[in-house]
Prior knowledge:
Blueprint: E1 3-12, H1 16-24, H2 29-33, E2 38-45, E3 53-59, E4 65-76, E5 79-84, E6 90-98, E7 101-111, H3 115-143
Antiparallel strand pairs: 1-7, 2-3, 3-4, 4-5, 5-6, 6-7
Amino acid sequence: MAQVTATAERTIDAPVEKVRALVADYAGTRSKILxxxxxxxxxxxxxxxxxxxxxxxxQATEKRVRDIAATVTEPEPGTLVETxxxxxxxxxxxxxxxxxxxxxxxxxxWNGAGGIGGFxxxxxxxxxxxxxxxxxxxNLAAAV
Length: 144
């Protein structure tokens, strides 16, 4: 199994503290910035930053739906890590200062399938997930 990685980033014209607060707001902001590929989003514990537990269905393609049960940690200020209890998927949100604004990066990694299926997954899944994340980041920029 090869590790698969999908990444998207965007500079947002807002102070880093404000953007970090919005990204960490799983109970409020998060449901508003998610795209139509996310369904049944709910916070099951906490709601802000580390210690939050949330679940959702991610419809990556017409046939591919992942049930995510994420636990959030914050290994350092500006970095939130969502670890899925149902798979090897780990999504890291990083918010850093970029001049007067903020650079937001979303990176997801998981253990891909082997064989020919794994080849297609490693080739196409990161592009599809990047498109989804680009939409989420656009929604975040609009929410600021």
